[in-house]
Design goal:
This protein has 643 residues and is of the alpha/beta class. The chain has five domains: 2-69, Arc Repressor Mutant, subunit A, CATH 1.10.10; 169-273, Orthogonal Bundle (PTS-regulatory domain, PRD); 281-392, PRD domain (PTS-regulatory domain, PRD); 397-469, Rossmann fold (3-Layer(aba) Sandwich); 492-642, Mannitol-specific EII, Chain A, CATH 3.40.930. It contains 26 helices and 15 strands. Residues 290-396 form the PRD domain.
């Protein structure tokens, strides 16, 4: 557990890239500040004399050697490394291992190895594998496919945030496995060959494919091939199989059999998407020809339900067909139990919670209709589809308006406007140009004022620029536009949130022993008592939590039900100091939200602006420390929003 917390601490610092106090990190990890200091010392020892974590007056931040510390395999005696070594030994020896010989080789006692074998049994849950023990011998029982899935799971555990990491893969397979010199050219040529066939390759997915190819090459070299199966009749399956066979023999020195080639070509084909760049009827029909009618029908109906439920503009033919193709591939991956990891899952959930929630709704509908398993990484891929569609359909009225103040001198003001449109046209829209040297500043009511002369009264929305636009001018205008957008969002948030909070539904000092379900019931009780929701809403909130954790940031969880059945939109707040476990992390604020059918607009407010406030570590600490009562909580929240 200590090693895992060290890795978690380092991961937080690397991801945020900012200074963090010991107290803040302690809250995130559920330990004391003293423990944080000891973790920092241990992490730095991994890369000595380098620096993985820097210390200073502001606390700690990731140092230049942080990435190396994350990749460090650690000492051979650490429990995780010993567990992986033990599993590798069991996988490599069909006849099993001798417990006493293995304990000597690992420099641990037989009792410690027995405890490790018990952990191996826990790791085998749901893998179709079993650990048999007879006297001093221990042996894995199960198919070769199941054993490879276990190797894949170990490799993912070694990799940081799901990204492909050859060094981590070699730690899983053993140092004698295929190295970077072979796999670099292999991957490059595989992507190029697939591209020559007219396919776009999902780089996140191809990383997983390369990992499975590495596992296949390693197992085949140990005379452990997959059983042969009847070849697929599809021509593209044969094409991809031929490419993999050729590249594996040339780059890796391994001849793959029919069973391995069929398995690997299926994985490749479920991670490539037909280009379909032109949104024409011909392109749509080409995509539709590849789809199973049932999949297209279900995806279309689920997307229409999501659009109506969340009031989002996603019912577009190209979106539906591309998503349906992705879902069909997901269905095939589910049959192979070859899940695709997504390194963007955590950031998507924290940065675009509303989009992720739409994806959860869609994923749940697909699960119910097509029996597709729900995994956060797969939900994140659906969120990427949803976000891409919404990005394409953003309205122009989201642009900020601007007035240019530039006293007339020949065509100077025209040149300046042209430069602003060219450099900032995606962020602002120039709706007026003042050429007087003494304009009526009070009458200018646009979001921003870009002026080449000193204004009569400085203001947040007024930006001084040069007559000939410079890079520094562009940066200042972009920064000002960002401040204006944030100010507007938070002003709307303050106005709306104050009406949603229920004073009687405020709890400070959440008990970690309650668990997620207990906290949801605790916060839901006053809302039920007030007639805002019924007991069924609380149960559906628990069901939604089981689909995917609602911990959208490192500090905030927003449990809620799918379906807006509350009598009015309301929020119950729970404060945890210190933090409590939630999902795969820990949180300090739990906001149980009950949404009303008549107030759908509140959904986006809560899931974007509210989550944005609690994504800032300093703001969270201020609210948590000072929110001794509901009035104090509201005061601190408003103060944070107002800046």
């Amino acid at each position: 557990m200590t090693r895992a917390r060290q890795d978690r601490l380092l991961g937080l610092l690397v991801r945020d890239g900012e200074w963090a106090t010991a107290a803040t990190l302690a809250d995130a990890l559920g330990v004391t500040p003293r423990s944080v200091r000891s973790y920092v010392t241990a992490v730095n020892a991994r890369v000595s004399p380098g620096t993985a974590v820097e210390s200073g007056p502001l606390g700690y931040r990731a140092g230049p050697d942080a990435a190396a510390a994350l990749r460090a395999a650690g000492e051979s005696g650490t429990p995780r490394d010993r567990l992986h070594t033990l599993v590798r030994a069991l996988l490599d020896n069909p006849d099993g291992i001798d417990v006493f010989e293995t304990s000597d080789a690992l420099h641990v006692s037989p009792a410690t190895l027995d405890a490790d074998l018990a952990r191996v049994r826990g790791l085998l849950g749901g893998t179709e594998l079993a650990l048999e023990r007879s006297a001093s011998r221990a042996r894995l029982q199960g198919t070769e496919a199941a054993q490879r899935r276990l190797l894949s799971r170990l490799a993912h555990d070694e990799m940081d945030a799901g990204s492909f990491d050859l060094a981590a893969l070699r730690r899983t397979l053993g140092e004698g496995s295929v190295g970077a010199k072979a796999f670099g050219p292999f991957k490059t040529e595989l992507v190029a060959r697939l591209g020559s066939l007219g396919w776009f390759v999902n780089e996140f997915g191809i990383g997983d494919v390369v990992m499975h190819i590495a596992i296949a090459a390693d197992r085949v070299s140990r005379d452990r091939p997959l059983d042969a199966v009847v070849p697929d009749a599809r021509p593209e399956q044969a094409e991809v199989s031929a490419i993999i066979a050729e590249l594996a023999e040339r780059h890796l020195g391994v001849q793959l059999g029919t069973g391995d080639l069929r398995h690997l070509s299926t994985l490749v084909l479920t991670r490539i998407v037909a280009p379909g760049a032109e949104r024409t009827d011909v392109a749509h029909e080409h995509t539709r020809a590849q789809l199973e009618p049932e999949v297209e029908t279900v995806v279309r109906e689920v997307v229409e339900q999501a659009a109506a439920e969340f009031l989002v503009d996603i019912v577009h033919e190209d979106f539906i067909l591309r998503l349906a193709l992705h879902v069909q591939n997901l269905r095939l991956r589910a049959r192979e139990q070859a899940w695709s990891r997504n390194p963007l899952t955590r950031s998507l959930k924290a940065t675009y919670p509303m989009i992720f929630e739409v994806a959860v709704f869609i994923a749940n509908g697909l699960h119910e209709r097509l029996d597709i398993p729900l995994l956060d990484d797969e939900i994140a891929y659906i969120a990427m589809h949803v976000g891409g569609r919404l990005e394409r359909s953003r309205r122009a009225d989201q642009l900020l308006t601007a007035t240019i103040v530039c006293p007339g001198y020949y065509e100077l003001h025209e040149l300046l406007r042209s430069s602003v449109d060219r450099s900032l046209g995606q962020a602002i829209e120039v709706v007026g140009v003042e050429t007087r040297a003494d304009p009526d500043w009070a009458s200018i009511d646009t979001d921003l004022v870009l002026t080449t002369i000193e204004p009569a009264v400085p203001g947040e929305r007024i930006v001084r620029i040069q007559p000939f636009l410079t890079d520094a001018d562009i940066e200042r205008v972009q920064a000002a536009a960002g401040r204006v957008r944030r100010s507007r969002r938070l002003a709307r948030l303050r106005a709306e949130l104050e009406g949603y909070f229920v004073p009687a539904a405020f709890v400070r000092g959440l008990d970690p022993a309650l668990g997620e379900e207990g906290v949801i019931r605790l916060l839901g009780a006053p809302l039920v008592a007030g007639g805002i929701i019924d007991a069924e809403y609380v149960e559906r909130t628990i069901q939604r939590e089981h689909l995917s954790s609602t911990a959208f940031t490192d500090a905030l969880a927003v449990p809620h039900a799918l379906g807006m059945t509350a009598s009015r939109t309301a929020i119950a707040i729970g404060i945890a100091d210190p933090s409590i476990p939630w999902g795969d992390g820990r949180v300090q604020v739990v906001a149980l939200v009950a949404f009303s059918e008549t107030d759908r607009g509140a959904f986006q407010t809560v899931f974007e602006q509210f989550v944005e406030v609690f994504s800032e570590r300093d703001s969270v600490q201020r609210i948590v420390r000072r929110a001794s009562s509901f009035p104090a909580f509201l005061d601190e929240l408003v103060a944070v929003i107002d800046g």
